[in-house]
Amino acid sequence: MASLDTRKKLVTAALIAPAALWLFFFLVLPFIAMVVFSFGERGAAGGYQPGFTLEHYANLGARSMAYVNTLTLAPIGSLLCLLIAYPAAYYLAVKSNPNHRLLLVSLVIIPFWTSLLVRTYAWMYILGSRGIPNLLDMIGIENVRLLNTPGAVLLGIVYGYLPLMIMPIYVSLEKLDRRLLEASADLGAKPISTFFSVTLPLSLPGVMTGVALVTILLLGEYLIPQLLGGGKVFFLGNALVDLFLQSRNWPFGSAIAVTLVLIVVIVLMIAMRIAWRVSGTRQVDLV
Fold first, then answer.
1. Which end of the chain has the least Cβ crowding within 10 Å, N or C?
2. Rg (Cα) of the chain, in Å, rounded?
3. Which SS3 state, helix, strand or coil, does residue 46 take?
4. Cβ distance 89 to 229 under 8 Å?
């Protein structure tokens, strides 16, 4: 019996080992290096030189605008994605014709077939002086600036990340037992009451998965603020690119990166806690 247990443990270890090694070398070790760099000093020609100082953490306020923009626009962008994604996912999973459902889901995924860079450049044209502002100018509404604003960044965020919000909610709603909805109706509950007492609580794990996924990705977003914000709407991702590739202040960049990772972990823990409290079970999908 012991030998059988030993073989099972060895098989389990062999199956887990490739993923564990991958995570160790490409996630844990880089993070350790980043933490070490964050306590070091900037070299005379840039980069990193060994040392120990807390100066870079004390100087995080120098990039306060990047923190404010990220911690403000990322949650707002996630909320906007949620407000649009939930009705869309609900229609796909509950109301749409089953014969057309695969086609509709495919239409949600199709934007991912095109590079985000290309799609963002398209929005730069639409929001630029030759796009919507030009059309508004033709009808007498002058001096409208859409590009290089927080609104343009939020629009790009919603457009780019909406499918990532729709799919987890859709999967959660598709698994919903329709008999629960019928039972609620048989007991005299109105559709709105059924939604808030049955549908929404049971789909909340999918909602939290989508919110966590989109928010975590937005916290490190670089491309959309850079192109649609025009360097005027800075995210932490833009600050990291500036510090590592332009000013070559690796220790300060590492300190910001460490705080970003901590923010991501906090967001993930909050999402898991909410999903666990509401559903009554641990939502491992968020991990």
1. N
2. 24
3. coil
4. no
Tokens 């000013």 correspond to what residue? 247
Amino acid at 244: F
3-state secondary structure 169-222: HHHHHHCCCHHHHHHHHHCCCCHHHHHHHHHHHHHHHHHHHHHHHHHHHHHCCC
CB 74 within 8 A of CB 215: yes
- Output the average pLDDT for the chain: 87
Cβ(247)–Cβ(184) below 8 Å? no
d(CA 229, CA 156): 10
pTM, two decimals, is 0.85
Domains and CATH numbers, the chain: 63-235 (1.10.3720.10)
Dihedral sign, Cα of residue 137, residue 142, residue 143, residue 148 = negative
Query: CB-based contacts of 104: which residues, under 8 Å, 6+ apart?
Result: 92, 96
Q: Comparing C-alpha atoms, which of 238, 285, 277, 271 is closest to residue 82?
A: 271
User: How many Cβ atoms sit within 10 Å of the Cβ of residue 105?
Assistant: 19
Residue 57 structure tokens: 């953490």
Which stretches of the chain are DSSP H helices?
2-23, 29-38, 55-58, 64-90, 98-109, 116-127, 132-138, 150-174, 178-186, 191-194, 200-219, 223-228, 236-241, 250-279
- Phi/psi at 40 (nearest 5 deg)? -90, -165
pLDDT band at 33 (very low <50, low <70, confident <90, very high): very high
Structure tokens at 66: 């990047």
> What is the C-alpha to C-alpha distance for residues 72 and 264, in angstroms, rounded to an integer?
14
* 117-172 pLDDT, tens digit each: 999 999 999 998 888 888 888 888 888 889 999 999 999 999 999 999 999 999 99
